[in-house]
Design brief:
The protein has 81 residues and is of the alpha+beta class. The protein has a domain of 48 residues. A two-stranded antiparallel sheet has the order 1-2. A hairpin with a 5-residue loop joins β1 and β2. The chain is elongated, with a radius of gyration of 16 Å. 14% of the residues are buried.
């Protein structure tokens, strides 16, 4: 298991692992940034297609963690709530 996965137990008591939702949210943000920038690429259609696929994949990973009851944990930056 790599550093981007966390253990979780589903409703039936089966242990498994999901992508850390904080990591999935980071990936989602990067994919959306790529989507915005893809229109400026020489192959805009391909860039758009890849960024949308990455967006869907990141959201799917976040949703899987959410459904397992795993919430993202963000480290305090010292800026307060």
């Amino acid at each position: 298991m790599d550093g981007h996965q966390v253990w979780a137990v589903d409703a039936s008591g089966v242990i498994g692992y999901v992508t850390d939702p904080a990591h999935a949210l980071e990936q989602l943000g990067e994919a959306l940034d790529d989507f915005t920038e893809s229109r400026e690429m020489a192959t805009a259609e391909y860039g758009t297609m890849c960024s949308l696929r990455n967006t869907v994949d990141a959201f799917r990973e976040y949703a899987a963690a959410f459904l397992m009851g795993v919430a993202p944990v963000f480290f305090d930056s010292g800026r307060g709530p």
